[in-house]
Structure formats: structure tokens, C-alpha cells
Amino acid sequence: MIELPGTDLLVLHALRCGGHAGVARVAAAVGLDESTVESELIDLAVAGLVTYTAGGFNVWGLTDAGRTADAERITDELESSGARPAVTAAYERFLVLNPELLDLCAAWQLRPVDGVATANDHGDPSYDARVLGRFSALDRRAAVVCAELSAALPRFDRYRTRLTEALGRAASGELGYVTDSTASYHAVWAELHEDLLATLGIPRW
Amino acid sequence: MVRWIRPLLAEVEESAEILGAKAHGLVVLRRLGLPVPAGFVVTTEACRAFLREGRLPDGLDEELAAALGDLEAATGRRFGGARTPLAVSVRSGASVSMPGMMNTILNLGLTAEAAAGLAVETGDARFALNSRLRFLSTFASAIADTDVDGVAAAPDRAAGRSAEDEDEEARLADAIEAVQRLVRQRCGRAIPDNAARQLALAVATVFSSWDTSRARTYRELHDIPHDLGTAAIVQTMVFGNRDDHSGTGVAFSRDPNTGENIPFGEVLFGHQGEDVVSGRSLTRPLHELADREPAVWTALVDALSRVEGHYLDACYVEFTFQAGELWMLQVRPGRFVGGAAVRVATDLADERVITRHEALLRVSPQHLQHVRTPRIAASAEADIVARGVGACPGVAVGKVATTTDAAVRMSADGPVILVRPETSPHDMRGLAAATGIVTARGGPASHAAVVARAMGKPAVVGVADLIVEVADALVRTGGRAIAEGALVTIDGTSGEVALGSPRVTTNAADAHLRRLLAWADDVSGDRSERDEAQRLSAAHAALRHA
């Protein structure tokens, strides 16, 4: 049984995959309460791995040392658990779904009217329902990939929870949870993509 | 008996429903006397049979063999032959447009033996290997439903020959091996080294691509029936990578940004098709063709004029030129929007190509919303340094920032344009801080495009030649270096990036729009104060009930 990594690594890695974020967003990403996350962040800052930007931003981010430390520990976790083949296979299946997800996000934002791509003003519930229906269909296929990832490395389980929550909220009328908010389906998906690249050590160009 | 195949000849009369829109366009080009590589189309009926039965229909094999025999006779080449080998392209083409959803396979038939034959014939081993690699990688992408370009990017044809050729040949051979290994790994079997089997597999693969979940989703969203199917077009290859007088490009008969009556597009010297459309390579503005290949340019301008004469509208074409000879690969109406649609419709009426009534019907009231979107004014002064795909309309002016950190820091002093290779969650702060966004990679559904629209910020994505050098805090594009902090203006409609702050207009098509609306009032007989969309809609209603 592979276990979750320590809270410190979870917090560090959340910043690696999600970019700069406030305590609340990191807490939502890792599924821990804010006070636990904040004390981890302070410890990581003392170790020189993360840094706080005040002045209205009030966000935490990785230092160069933090990025290096995260890469080492995440690679170590991957190799010591023997999860690389399973994560690689899941990543390939993710890549098949990724363009479709992006198509859906684009369709949520723009719809063709008389051949002109026009901003979706969400005034047509039947169109939105159709797009969300396709999101659900894609999400069912994504769930299979997420399950494979969670079986290989349990920390990936958070993505399933967060994707489900985003879609649920969108379906109940909180439309910002599709593409707009930092907890939107698109945002969580993009973090999952970044996590897969980071975990497998695949550089963006 | 059902016939599954039609030749691409002027006398073919079937509709786009049977031939697919792309093959139908090729037949039109043939009728116009324009140069189209010899070929044939496997119809949408064959695709529907394939989708029903899960295998290629009976009799297709024989028809394929016969059609290839005709191609061999027409070209004097042998399919899969060790000498003067015939290579073909296999492209999908449904009766409706589904951009980027389905497959294209180039240089099919270049087995190991045929590629060796091509090397002997041309005396250019690198060209032959390059072409075989392109065959394997496009085929692998299609059958493994994955993008293998990362494994073996089909290399550019470097200018001139040199002592590096041998190294280059070794590198190509390695890349060829890597793609084949990948296919064995992913698919559990190798790409057949037999031309006829390659073709049958390619046709089946194109047909299957109709039913990928991504394609199904696209059809659901766009109200396209699932049972139409796609055709598969098989044509003699023309090689845009053949020599220094070869290349490929796309062209509009008029400028799709403004509607102005001048050819507009991109050309890529020394490359094969797909490279332009995929946005992966360095394209040049179309007019450079006039200087470098004047004969090709003259033939292209003539072709654009003839296709406009047929479609009575601005048109879009894809073309390749091999050893200085032009070949047309696709044609369709231009589908302009916004101010460009208004201008083309009024100009065509003034040119007496269409009637004023037809001009009115060509412009949707929806287009009028977009006529007023701010745009970089077309002028000689605008110093356009890069061109990508407009992903979120509007104009943004600001200083170049090459990293999210720089964007956040610099935004305290004024507007910033974030310029990145592509974006990821790491760039969210920068995207939030920036006034506009430019990326090198990605299309209209990329991460950057989705986020830009969510934030309502003008964005240009897919600037293929853009290089972001974070270490030196500068970006390179179009042979120019632009330092961080330099002022640029981006147009999220046209995808243009200009240095400095050129004039911005919200009524580029104003004069044309006023004339069109005057015609609208003539038709409706109503000259009361109303908004523009209402004036146009009233004319549409009157014309439809006339």
C-alpha cells in the first residue's frame, strides 16, 4: 500500500502544480484545513522552499530551491513506489482527453451564431445544458484515468474530488465553476496536467 | 453494385454529401481548369458502411487496387515500387467542417524500399528519408490517436547542402526507428511495410476518426448528425519539401481581417502541407511568394480569381508548389466575419459579382456586433512584428513581460502584455495582472485562450515563430528582438502583434457599413431611427418574404 506523502510535500507540490496561491486555495487543493496548511507553509518558508508575497497579493509561491526540492521528492516518490509505468500510461490516456476538454471549455465560452463565434452569454439554458452534458460524459472517462492515477499514487485522489465538486457546482447553477474561477473544472484540470508533467519530469518546452 | 470510389475529375457530378466537401471542392477546381494532383475519393457511403459493419466494405479492396492502377498509369510511377515510387496523401473530408478533428496521412506508400528508390531517383537521400519520416509520424499519430511529433519532429529542410548531410541522414534514420518503435509499443503491431496494406489501413483509420469521442462531442455541440461519415481522399503527393523552389501555403482571395481585395495568407518555403495549418513552423507572409517564386504567385493569383468567380465570394485555398509548379489542394468559401464580411459583401455588389439583395443576405445581423470591436487600423505605419491566431477579440496595449513575475511587478506601473511560450497554472497571476496575452503555442482552445476569454482579455495565441528568452528578458519574432518593457499592441481578432501603439479603430468598415445599411433601408422601406442590427434584420425579413 502506497501512502500519501507528508503534509509538507503535499503543500509544496500544490504550489508546484497550481502556481502562486493564498492559504485558502492551497488548503482546497490538498484537502486540509487552513491552519495546518499555514503552519506547513511557514515551516517551508523557514526552510527557504517557499516565499510569501504581501502587498495586496498575499500569496505563497515556490522559491528556486523549493522547485528543486519538490522535483527531487516527487521523483523519489514515483520511483520508490514503482508507479512510473502506471502514471505514464495514465498520462497518455489523459492526453487523449485533453483536447476534448479544451474544446468543451471553448464551447462553453464561445458559440457559433450564424457562423460567427460569439461570446456565450449563458442566456440559452438548453445550450449550456448540452455543453455541461458533454462535460459530464468526458468526466466519466476522466474518472477512469483518475482512478488509475490514484491507485498508483494516492495523492492524485484530490483531483477526482475537486473535479467532481467543480462540475457539481456548475450543474447547480454556479457557472463560474466551468472555466472562470480558480476552482473551476478547467483550472483543476490544468493543475492535474501540470502535476502529470511535474511528476514524470516532462518539461514544457 | 455499389461503387465506393470516384475519381477526382471534372465530370464527377455527385454532391458534397457523397464526396465530402473537400473532394467536392477539388472537383470544382478541376472544372475550373486548375492544377489538382491526380487522385480519387473513397465516398462517405463507404465510411457509413465501415461504421455499420466495423470493417471496410466488400469490393473496396478491388476498387482501391483499380484506382491505384489508374493513378500509376496517369503518373508513370509505381505504388510502393523500388523505382520511381508513387506516394499518396490520404485525407479525411466530411460534408461538414470539423476542423482539426480528423486525420491526414502524407507520403503514404513510402515503404523502406520505396523511400530508397525515391532517394536514388532524386539523388537526395535526405529528402527521401525526411518524406518517409513524415509518412510514419503522420500515420502513427493517426493510428495511435496521439501526437508523435515530440518523438520525432519532422525536421525542416535546411537551406543548402553541406557536409552535415550524413549526420542529418543518421538522425533521420534514428527518428524513423523511434516512430516505428513507438507504434509497436502503442498498437502492439508495426506499420505495414507494404503500400497496398498501408492504404487500406489508412482509409480505415480515417473512417474511424469520424467516431472518436472528441469528434462525437464536437458534433453534439454543433448539431451535426453522427451518421454522415467522412470521405477519404487519396491523391498523388506533391512535395513541398522537394527542393528550394518548393513549399506550401494557405491563401484567402481577400484579407479576412479587413475584407480588402488583396490576397492574404501564409507561405512556408521548403515544407510539406500540414506544417502551415498546424502552426508549428515558421511561415512567411504570402506576398513574399511574389518575389521568390513569381511564376507560382502569378498562377496562384489567377487561381484565386477563378475560384472567386465560381463561388461568388471571397475564398480560402490550400496549395503546395513543387519545383516551381503550383498545385491546389483545397478550396472553400472564406466565411469572413465582422467588418470583413460587411466589406466583402458591399465590394462584391459594387463589382457586380452579386446583387445588392444578395449582399444584404450575406451579412448576418450577428456580424454587426463584431464590426465595432476595436482593431488595429490597417495602415502602412502599423509595424506588425508577429501574427498568430486571435483568441479573444479586442485591442490591448502594454509593455512586454516575459514571465508571470515580471508581469506582476511591471503591472504596478502600467498595462502589461504577458508573452509566454504557452501558459500553465503557474501563469495565472501573470494572466490576471496582464492587459493582454500572447503565446507561441496553442490554438483557440488552448489554456491561454480559455483563461483569456474567462478574464475578457484580448489574446493572440499560436505565434509560431515566437521565442521567449526569459534569461535575456526578450522575445524574438519575425527576425526581430523585442526587449521586456517594450511597448506592443495586440489585436485579438486578427491575431496581429504590432510594435508601439499604432492607431486603433472601432469602425474599420464604417463607410461600407453605411452603404450596406442604406441598401437595407431601400429594401425595407423603413427609414426610422433604429439600431443597425434592426435595419439589417428588417431588410432580411423583406427579402425573405418577397
From TrEMBL, chain A:
<dbReference type="InterPro" id="IPR036390">
    <property type="entry name" value="WH_DNA-bd_sf"/>
</dbReference>
<protein>
    <submittedName>
        <fullName>Uncharacterized protein</fullName>
    </submittedName>
</protein>
UniProtKB/TrEMBL annotation, chain B:
<dbReference type="Pfam" id="PF01326">
    <property type="entry name" value="PPDK_N"/>
</dbReference>
<protein>
    <recommendedName>
        <fullName>Pyruvate, phosphate dikinase</fullName>
    </recommendedName>
</protein>
<feature type="domain" description="PEP-utilising enzyme mobile">
    <location>
        <begin position="415"/>
        <end position="495"/>
    </location>
</feature>
<dbReference type="GO" id="GO:0005524">
    <property type="term" value="F:ATP binding"/>
</dbReference>
<dbReference type="GO" id="GO:0050242">
    <property type="term" value="F:pyruvate, phosphate dikinase activity"/>
</dbReference>
<dbReference type="InterPro" id="IPR002192">
    <property type="entry name" value="PPDK_AMP/ATP-bd"/>
</dbReference>
<dbReference type="GO" id="GO:0016301">
    <property type="term" value="F:kinase activity"/>
</dbReference>
<dbReference type="InterPro" id="IPR008279">
    <property type="entry name" value="PEP-util_enz_mobile_dom"/>
</dbReference>
<dbReference type="InterPro" id="IPR036637">
    <property type="entry name" value="Phosphohistidine_dom_sf"/>
</dbReference>
<dbReference type="Pfam" id="PF00391">
    <property type="entry name" value="PEP-utilizers"/>
</dbReference>
<feature type="domain" description="Pyruvate phosphate dikinase AMP/ATP-binding">
    <location>
        <begin position="53"/>
        <end position="280"/>
    </location>
</feature>
<dbReference type="InterPro" id="IPR010121">
    <property type="entry name" value="Pyruvate_phosphate_dikinase"/>
</dbReference>
<dbReference type="InterPro" id="IPR013815">
    <property type="entry name" value="ATP_grasp_subdomain_1"/>
</dbReference>
